[in-house]
Specification:
The chain is built from 3 helices and 4 strands. It is of the alpha+beta class. It has a domain of about 70 residues: Surface presentation of antigens (SPOA). It has a 4-stranded antiparallel sheet. A hairpin with a 2-residue loop joins strand 3 and strand 4. The relative contact order is 0.09.
Length: about 130
Amino acid sequence: MVATDKNIEKLDTNSSNPPEIPESNGKDAGEKQYEFSGLSDTSASQSSANMELILDIPLEITVEVGRTRILIAELLKLGQGSVVELTKVAGETLEIFANKKLIARGEVVVIKEKYGIRITEIVSPMERIEGLK
């Protein structure tokens, strides 16, 4: 309830006591109760509509062939035709990342002279949680 001249008799600026405001029962004139719908009452159509909201979000997919560490001096010596040895061996599974988060592992395939990745393992939810640490 809002304090107005009608419901506050007189404001005494010299008094240390705060003005008295009449108690309200929570039902002011024109006030309506609003009922919220339950959170568990989502239908399948609402769920699919919500899912459609995220389907157009772009993701950066990266496949890691291997890693290595070299000194800056070695990096500066690299040129066309140089070979950089990686930690993974030929035929070992590669890691697949979505927005820099590990999501799967797979192997290299060639399709119509282009490289591809055959997914061999999806990372478990527990492994994904461990990756966040």
